[in-house]
Amino acid sequence: MPPAELRDDPELQYISNEHGDLTGVLVPIAVWREISAELETRHLLGSDAMRQRLLDAMARSGGLPFEEVIAQLKIDETTDS
After folding, report:
1. Residue 24 forms beta bridges with which residues?
2. Which of 25, 30, 31, 34 has its CA 20 to 30 A from that of 41?
3. In angstroms, rounded to a whole number, what is the distance separating the alpha carbons of residues 41 and 39?
4. What letter does residue 47 receive in the DSSP assignment?
């Protein structure tokens, strides 16, 4: 059975077999992206080295605007490759 906080979520669809055993969950992509981002953050913060890198990056200032970096690298944002 899913956790109580998820059981009544109308966005989630539970899949069960012929015995009524829960076998899967259909999750909207927006919800999956939130879950995925949370798992990635937990993974990164689980490493002391990565935690320090993230803290250092957050403390940095004086970076370049995204558009300026694109211009300096001469990247065409309209192409996929």
Report:
1. 15
2. 25
3. 5
4. S
Q: By the 8 A CB rule, do 31 and 25 touch? A: no
Contact in structure between 22 and 16 (CB atoms under 8 Å): yes
Closest C-alpha among 27, 26, 22, 29 to residue 2: 22
* Structure token digits, residue 61: 């200032």
Cβ–Cβ < 8 Å for 67, 75: no
Backbone angles phi, psi at 11, to 5 degrees: -80, -20
Token code pair at residue 51: 């935690």
Determine how many CB atoms are found less than 10 A away from the CB of residue 54: 14
- 31, 57, 59, 65 from 62: Cα distances, Å: 34, 11, 10, 9
